[in-house]
């Protein structure tokens, strides 16, 4: 039926509303005998519950990073957690990253569309702290294709459970996940007045306005580079006991 095709284009609730209005109009005009959209809310599949990715407050981040340094976890896992904090990429994008995607001299990580959730390439500006971590990783995994090569099989990436397992061992179960670092960055940078488009592009999110997203191909790479360097510097300042609000560059 035509309405089943339409339903794939928009969220079900909006489609039901439109169909209900259409058939009500048809009833009023006498061109239909009933409104089959009335009971669609009964037969439609329930909406999926949103996934929640807990994260600590920024003020708690120095303690988390301190535990990360002292915990009995693999060095690669320790570096992976720090890179998630510094870049806000998805854990899967980091775990499966090959060295070939990184240009450390240009401080840029380019992820091809095949590895991205939105199926478009994503340029990640690397703050100097992230570049330093990657240079420290080169003697460890530089001979392999993958930055975070698996311990048992270096041709496969680190297990998808490794980062969250490490966070649980550090005492952060239900308080912090690998994905949650993205939410932490978004919360903090939005709160400091940064351009929303920069933040959303850093997170590789599509625009909620589908039409606008289709035509907005802006990368904002240099703007994001400054933003992410300020983010990394503010974390260093916070860990050193300084006031991060002073250190974190605000948007103009």
From TrEMBL:
GO terms for biological process: DNA integration; DNA recombination. Pfam families: Phage_integrase. Gene3D superfamilies: 1.10.150.130, Intergrase catalytic core. Keywords: DNA integration, DNA recombination, DNA-binding. Transmembrane segments: none annotated. GO terms for molecular function: DNA binding. PANTHER family: PROPHAGE INTEGRASE (PTHR30629), PROPHAGE INTEGRASE INTS-RELATED (PTHR30629:SF2). Belongs to the 'phage' integrase family. This is Site-specific recombinase, phage integrase protein.
